Amino acid sequence: MMDLETVYQGIQEGRRRALARGLSWVDEGSDRGNALLGRLFPHAGHAHVIGITGAPGVGKSTLVNALTLHLRKTKQTVGILAVDPSSPFTGGAILGDRIRMQDSVDDQGVYMRSLASRGHVGGLSRATFGALTLLDAAGFDVILIETVGAGQAEVDVMRFAQTVLVVLAPGLGDDIQAIKAGILEIGNIFVVNKGDREGADRTVRSLRSMLGLTSTSLDWVPPIIKTSADRNEGIGELVQAIEDHVRVPEENRLGQEGQGYSMALFLLDGGRIGIAAQSVGIMSTALERSLAYAREREQFGRPIGQFEGVQWRLADMATDLHAARLMTYEAAHRREEGPAQRPLFAMAKLFASEKAVQHAADAIQIFGGYGYMREYGVERLLRDAKVTEIYEGTSEIMRLVIASRLLKEYDLGNI
Ligand SMILES: Cc1cc2nc3c(=O)[nH]c(=O)nc-3n(C[C@H](O)[C@H](O)[C@H](O)COP(=O)(O)OP(=O)(O)OC[C@H]3O[C@@H](n4cnc5c(N)ncnc54)[C@H](O)[C@@H]3O)c2cc1C
């Protein structure tokens, strides 16, 4: 009996017995399956996941086989998940069922598994996600998920794939008009398999006109590839289309490889200044409305703006607003100096967002009971303000950013 640690280690070392055991745990949705997933998740995220969907009889298994052989020639390892919610089969049965997959079953660079959803609502998606994570963590370069493409569950499963192939075949009575719109929408590449059969070109033509009507992306026009998987025809072209689909063209690259994290942080810096500006806007509205109300609302025979208690609040709001605005302007002015000024950006966001929450509450206080009424438009300032303390990094994270720089470089003037 393997324990969690053995399975966890074994999967990362690519051991098949450990992988098989882990997949069973994940498939049954057990606690140990969830625990394993939690530990392996950080090790996943490297594989290219390719979904293959289409009605029964279009030749998906043969296509999977041909694709696998092609990928193996380029030394890529391949994990295969066969998803069929209507007839959950065992790993043994599926291999027996797939005579055509024989070419791959003895190859250590290929691992195949069928998935049973066990009838739970959402079970198919959960089990597929778990199995994908395990195969990914086990180091497979490419993972092929194959489904029958019959319903919403499969459409959901296909969302785990970076590239979705929708497979059709001529003469199966599956008139293209009858294909579910959902399936057409998720396809990144359309494959007309059994392309040597009569009617294949007609299928390609009507598919092209259907896609012309439904295509929504300007970046990627789904290609239609004709294959005869059993004769190994069109597979090279299909693999090329799959690679093209995930390749970021040189001209679309934002920076050098390996710089993604620092670029993300640079963008986050800009985002934080933007949130500071948003908070300044909220503070400005809070003050404007409070001033107008303080002039207009009378109690004890005079406008409430004549009471000192209200005046102090208004004076503090105006002072904070001015400070927050200057901090935001300075942060924006020095934004191009980059990470060196990161604590300044964090300070602007921290100060402005916390003051915005306080001022929204102050405005409600000045409005008294009317502050709660939607018509007076100040209660929503509090909702709008609160989120500025959370997104693009919470106030706690802003303090960590500031403090860690303080502890490294004691010279405040340098920040
Ligand atoms: C309306 C809204 C819109 C959003 N839009 C986007 C968006 O467009 N894009 C996007 O990517 N994200 C978006 N987010 C997500 C947002 O960026 C995160 O919610 C935020 O960064 C906080 O992360 P979290 O929710 O995972 O909280 P957690 O990290 O789980 O934090 C929970 C609590 O623990 C505290 N905490 C966590 N770590 C520490 C620590 N080390 N020290 C002290 N305290 C800590 C946090 O400050 C917080 O109080 C949005 C969130 C909201 C509410």
Q: Secondary-structure map with pairings?
A:
Layout: H1 4-12, H2 16-27, H3 31-40, E1 48-53, H4 60-73, E2 78-83, H5 91-97, H6 102-105, E3 110-115, H7 123-137, E4 142-147, H8 152-158, E5 163-168, H9 181-186, E6 189-192, H10 200-214, E7 224-226, H11 235-246, H12 260-296, E8 298-299, E9 302-303, H13 308-333, H14 342-367, H15 379-386, H16 395-408
Parallel strand pairs: 1-4, 1-5, 2-3, 2-4, 5-6, 6-7
Antiparallel strand pairs: 8-9
Bound molecules: flavin-adenine dinucleotide.
Notes on the protein architecture:
This protein has 415 residues and is of the alpha/beta class. The protein has three domains: 43 residues, no CATH class; 201 residues, P-loop containing nucleotide triphosphate hydrolases (Rossmann fold); 155 residues, Butyryl-CoA Dehydrogenase, subunit A, domain 3, CATH 1.20.140.10. It is built from 16 helices and nine strands. Strands 3-2-4-1-5-6-7 form a seven-stranded parallel β-sheet, with helices on both faces. Strands 8-9 form a two-stranded antiparallel ribbon. α9 links the parallel β5 and β6. The two termini are 57 Å apart. About 3% of the residues have low confidence. The structure holds flavin-adenine dinucleotide. Flavin-adenine dinucleotide binds next to α16.
